[in-house]
Amino acid sequence: MTNAPIRKVLIVGGGTAGWMTAAALSKVLGRQVEVTLVESEQIGTVGVGEATIPPILTFNAMLGIDERDFMRATKATFKLGIEFRGWTDPGDRYIHPFGTFGLDIEAIKFHQIWLKFRDQVGPIETFNLAAVAALTGRMALPDPDPAKVLSSLKYAFHFDAGLYARYLRRFSEARGATRVEGKVADVTLRGEDGFIQSVTLDDGRVLEADLFIDCTGFRALLIGEALGGTYHDWSHWLPNDRAVALPCATGGDGMTPYTRATAQKAGWTWRIPLQHRTGNGYVYSSAHIGDDEALATLMAGLDGPAQAEPNFLRFTAGRRDRAWIKNCVAIGLSSGFLEPLESTSIHLIQAGITKLLSLFPDQSFNPLEIDQYNRLTAQQVDLVRDFIILHYKATARADTPYWDYVRTMEIPESLQRKIDLFAGRGRLFQSDYDLFAEPSWIAVLLGQGIVPRQYDALVDSLPEGDIVQRLKRMSALIAQTAAALPSHQAFTARYCAADAAPANATSGVPA
Ligand SMILES: Cc1cc2nc3c(=O)[nH]c(=O)nc-3n(C[C@H](O)[C@H](O)[C@H](O)COP(=O)(O)OP(=O)(O)OC[C@H]3O[C@@H](n4cnc5c(N)ncnc54)[C@H](O)[C@@H]3O)c2cc1C
């Protein structure tokens, strides 16, 4: 082992994870490190993963991507949150919007004040601009002036996963990354320490590197098959293990600026409107429903004619015990998967890349740094896991064996504590590394029917009549701000219509 710098990185796999990693490494380390990506067209990618969350704007900014070019190239639309239908009772709905609810008053948390006065001031979602804009089909960019209500608008994107990978491929190749077409048939480990030495393609070519990134998706060719990394199976908490995806022509409610997640008999269906089509899928538990019934349910709910053959996928919810082993880092589905209910996978790819860059190794592969990467990854993923389980556990649904199971299942102690603290007096404590901040937990806890029995006693120190008036002014201002915005359709057409000429001459390849 030497302290010599890493010279060669080999990324195995060219799905969203592979190309996001290639783009970031070639942008940040392109001068010092040779970045090669090998992928197999014959194997292909999962071809799904179209909804994102706001931190993707940070990733785009790190790459220096022009948002309008990126949105044109990926036929993207804006996303302001997720509408959940039927999660507490078949007829119910709520929204988990991006951004915060209202404003704290005299250091007392807004949701505590709302809890006391909720009967007089209306639903909590009327205090979040993204929620009101989403449900009224409005969109604009946030105002840079923090004094304006519009500055509080937070957004992310819906995009075409295939086009996103192609876009990042052009970006990476323009910065020196090399793509190799081929199928990895074998992985060779070094005799002395079990590190990966090379991969061999099925035509006999051998690719060597100092650092290997496993982006082979559910196959986990390097981290799992070659290095024998173990996998924590969480299907007892997250029993969905199948999905069927099927795009269709846009129709129904049209190009809504939010993802819709509708609870079904044995899982849930998604609806993700893009500029050129609407993505749909049913995520379900094979122990509770068959593939044919899942497909029939999905097809019955399509907004328009199907535009492709159904794409069936299988998975096991969970994560790798260690995402980094020796000289191999697993990023993307090879490191784990938590089902797409809160659109967290692409973010976890981004989080993996960010941590890798901040702990980028030399040839000594310091075990302490590798351990730090693995600890941080585990913390982040476990917190996301709890957040997703909450949607299933906190339900009143008892209408099918599936909902009976998830409603009555044992849950992680960390989540049970969180639910109990909130159910008592609305207490919430943000853990380090929790991707979901307090407003997200509040939206889903309340949305799933967990209304605290009491509010924080500090709220009683506020003058009642004044506060009710202030709250009413807050929600009125949010409603006015949203009503003044253009429709999502009109704003998208003006800002980033996919059929308009790109703003720079490189056709979507950021300069
Ligand atoms: C049903 C479903 C819905 C989802 N929805 C969302 C969502 O809305 N939002 C979100 O953030 N995430 C979502 N995800 C997750 C998201 O799709 C993935 O995180 C993302 O696509 C990354 O996948 P990947 O690149 O790790 O794997 P893949 O796309 O499977 O790519 C694997 C790559 O490895 C290559 N490969 C494999 N074996 C070999 C070999 N032997 N030799 C050479 N190359 C090889 C393949 O050719 C491919 O290029 C969803 C996932 C599923 C299953």
Give the SSE layout:
Blueprint: E1 8-12, H1 16-29, E2 34-39, H2 56-63, H3 67-73, E3 77-79, E4 81-85, E5 93-97, H4 110-121, H5 129-135, E6 156-158, H6 161-174, E7 178-181, E8 184-189, E9 196-201, E10 206-208, E11 211-214, H7 221-226, E12 231-233, E13 242-245, E14 259-264, E15 267-273, E16 278-284, H8 291-300, E17 311-314, E18 318-320, E19 324-325, E20 328-330, E21 336-337, H9 345-358, H10 367-393, H11 401-408, H12 413-425, H13 438-447, H14 464-483, H15 488-496
Flavin-adenine dinucleotide binds at residues 12-18, 38-40, 43-46, 48-52, 161, 183-184, 215-217, 219, 221, 243, 245, 281, 283, 313, 315, 332-334, 340, 343, 345-346, 349.
Describe the model:
It is a single chain. The longest helix has 27 residues, at 367-393. Strands 5-4-14-15-16-13-17 form a seven-stranded mixed sheet. It has helices spanning 16-29, 56-63, 67-73, 110-121, 129-135, 161-174, 221-226, 291-300, 345-358, 367-393, 401-408, 413-425, 438-447, 464-483, 488-496; strands at 8-12, 34-39, 77-79, 81-85, 93-97, 156-158, 178-181, 184-189, 196-201, 206-208, 211-214, 231-233, 242-245, 259-264, 267-273, 278-284, 311-314, 318-320, 324-325, 328-330, 336-337. The radius of gyration is 23 Å and the shape is globular. α5 (129-135) packs across α14. The model is unreliable at 501-511 (pLDDT under 50). With 511 residues, it is an alpha+beta fold. It has a domain at 8-76 and 159-233 and 321-382: 3-Layer(bba) Sandwich (FAD/NAD(P)-binding domain). Helix content is 35%, strand content 18%. The protein has 15 helices and 21 strands. A hairpin with a 2-residue loop joins β19 (324-325) and β20 (328-330). The site of flavin-adenine dinucleotide (FAD) has 41 residues, from α1, β2, β13, β16 and α9. Flavin-adenine dinucleotide (FAD) is lined by residues 12-18, 38-40, 43-46, 48-52, 161, 183-184, 215-217, 219, 221, 243, 245, 281, 283, 313, 315, 332-334, 340, 343, 345-346, 349.
